[in-house]
Amino acid sequence: MSQSAARRALRAAAVLASTAIAATFVTVFTAAPSLAADPIKIGSVVSATGPASFLGDPEQKTLKLYVEALNKKGGLMGRPVELVLYDDGGDANKARTFATRLVEDDKVVAMVGGTTTGTTMAMIPVFEDAKIPFISLAGAIEIVEPVRAFVFKTPHTDKTACQKIFEDMKARGYTKVGMISGTDGFGKSMRAQCMKVIGDYGITVAADESYGPTDADMTPQLNKIKNTDGIQAVLNPGFGQGPAIVTRNYAQLGIKLPLYQSHGVASKSFIELAGPAAEGVRLPAPALLIADKLADSDPQKKVVMEYKKSYESATGQPVSTFGGYGYDGIQLLLGAIERAKSVDPQKIRDAIEQTKGHVGTTGLYTMSPKDHLGLGTESFRMLEIKGGDWVPTETK
Where is the Leucine-binding protein domain (predicted)? Predict the structure, then answer.
């Protein structure tokens, strides 16, 4: 090799060496800040797409919105919060797979999610076995009854919804009603809970019908209810498109009896799907739906108005109670981590269980070892649809 060639080779080797050294330092100095501020990992599995997307999409948007806002303020305990979020599309098997991934691969310290009862129930064993707190956003009572050590939820239970509806029916003098329920997880659970407590209000079910998740016409079942003597009102436990179809068919058949829906349809999308037929429908729902109609003295007024403003400003969409469940879930969890001053899952779990008087969009939460929801019928507002909007039927 000539001297000039040798010098060129030496220069090339020096350049490579210096590049390698620089790359090493880049790796070290970019890694150092993340080690100094290791993120607090919170998991979430929601149904942002699929048949339950009207529930899961606002939940996903809400969780992202508030985690981003928190990080802009400096995070939690001086550390950023990382939201590890998966979309199960409403599939319980996918939900369980993602739950396992959150535990084994992502190493989350807690979980907020579970859009539907079906996906929630599929994930519960994973988080219970891992001893990681799980705050569900689904409705059925079996999520928290019997109480499981690491499982909590933010929406009212279907049992509480039944009680609120029957309180209203009793106050209006109704003693004989018809029921048409969805056969999905939520519909079946709520029907069962309603049947358990209805006798406490002196009311009997004179006609009991059901429909499947994919049914597009409920007129045969509604005709049977219509032709049953003595019925004074009708209740439809269900969620998704089913209750909107029931409501439209109800109007088409000219049934004039009061129609009650569940909190499972407490969103503007139900009114849009049902159209003019929704007029007069009654249902129990959180204060969020009537945020601007609340008295200034109402303890929830400030919280629901701030959430409504933040969500609608960020998304350009109206708030729904489902996004509110997500808001309550993330705020309950972040508050628990802050009180625990720890990211140890057991300490976070204990702090959630010790929640007292937390003001959320859904109600005022007070939990205990025997109550992993912390809401009663007083946190529900009885609403009626008038002029395409929600109107309270009672003064609180």
Answer: 39-388
pLDDT digits (tens, 9 = 90+) for 336-358: 999 999 999 999 999 999 999 99
Domains of the chain: 40-156+300-375 (3.40.50.2300), 159-285 (3.40.50.2300)
What burial class does residue 100 get, using C-beta atoms within 10 Å of its C-beta: 0-12 exposed, 13-18 middle, 19+ buried?
Answer: middle
Strand 381-386 with 389-392, pairing: antiparallel
Coil, helix or strand at residue 85: strand
Q: CA of 120: how far to CAs of 59, 112, 116, 204, 350, in Å?
A: 14, 10, 6, 32, 21
Backbone angles phi, psi at 132, to 5 degrees: -120, 125
What is the chain's Cα-based Rg? 26
Task: Tell me the three state secondary structure of residue 370.
Answer: coil
For 373, list phi and psi in degrees, rounded to 5: -120, -55
User: Which amino acid, 205?
Assistant: V
Q: How many CB atoms lie within 10 A of CB 66?
A: 22
Over residues 108-116, the mean pLDDT reads 97
- Residue pair 194/160 in contact (Cβ under 8 Å)? The answer is no
51-85, pLDDT tens digit by residue?
889 899 999 999 999 999 999 999 999 999 999 99
Query: Mean per-residue pLDDT for 32-41?
Result: 65
Closest CA to 41 of 115, 125, 104: 104
Q: How far apart are CA 370 and CA 121, in angstroms?
A: 19
Q: 266 in the Ramachandran plot: left (φ > 0), alpha (ψ -120 to 50) or beta?
A: beta
Asked if 224 and 207 count as a contact pair (C-beta separation under 8 A), the reply is yes
When the pLDDT of each residue in the chain is averaged and rounded to a whole number, the result is 90
Cα distance between residue 241 and residue 342, in whole Å: 42
